[in-house]
Amino acid sequence: MSDDLRRKARSDYVYRRFTIGTIAVALNKSEATIGRWKKSAKEAGDDWDKARSAHVIAGEGVEAVVSTVVEDFMIQAQAILDEIKEGGHSTQEKVGMLVQLSDAMTKMAASAKRFAPKISELGVAQDVMAKLLEFVREHFPQHANTILEIIEPFGEHLAGIYTT
Fold first, then answer.
1. Residue 47, burial from CB neighbour count under 10 angstroms (0-12, 13-18, 19+)
2. Distance, CA of 37 to CA of 58 (rounded, Å)
3. Which end of the chain is more exposed for a tag (fewer CB within 10 A), N or C?
4. Residue ranges covered by each domain of the chain
């Protein structure tokens, strides 16, 4: 029965693009268990992530894969933004974290732009945001809190525009 569940987990991950958490709930297993199955399969030569990407490319094309990567990245970026907003960091630390996040977003978008034109537009928008953050940090540090309040929702707005 465990082999049947592992096959079901792999199928849901690869073909239905479910998250590990969703699969765990559906199969009444822990996320750690599904993660171990995935890791064990990879060690045995069955990389679920590569299979998933190949399936998406074959069925939906490269642009869909790039969009998925951008979506996943934006979810992680949102988690970082939440930490910046709600964490106990100083204003200077928050601005530094935002600059690093913007830099990562710009690099991710630049590497993806040759595959999906919309990603290139998002990259330019994010580059402008990064430059604005650097400018405020260097020339108007007293306005760092204000820029943090504006940049977070504006970043979400941009992601919505360029990833849909």
1. middle
2. 25
3. N
4. 2-53, 62-162
Answer for the pair 35, 20: CB distance below 8 angstroms, yes or no. yes
Assigned token pair, 141: 């540090």
Asked if residues 23 and 34 have their Cβ atoms less than 8 Å apart, the reply is: yes
User: What rounded mean pLDDT belongs to the chain?
Assistant: 80
What burial class does residue 127 get, using C-beta atoms within 10 Å of its C-beta: 0-12 exposed, 13-18 middle, 19+ buried? Answer: middle
Length of the chain: 164
- Contact between 112 and 81 (Cβ < 8 Å): no
Q: Residue type at 72?
A: D
- How many CB atoms lie under 10 A from the CB of residue 46? 13
Cβ-Cβ contacts under 8 Å for 116 (sequence gap 6 or more): 62, 63, 66, 67
What would the pLDDT profile of 50-64 be if each residue is shown by its tens digit? 888 777 666 555 666
Q: Which tokens sit at 130? A: 């990064």
Q: What is the DSSP letter of 89?
A: -
* Tokens describing residue 84: 């910046």
* Token pair 């049947």 in the structure block, residue: 4
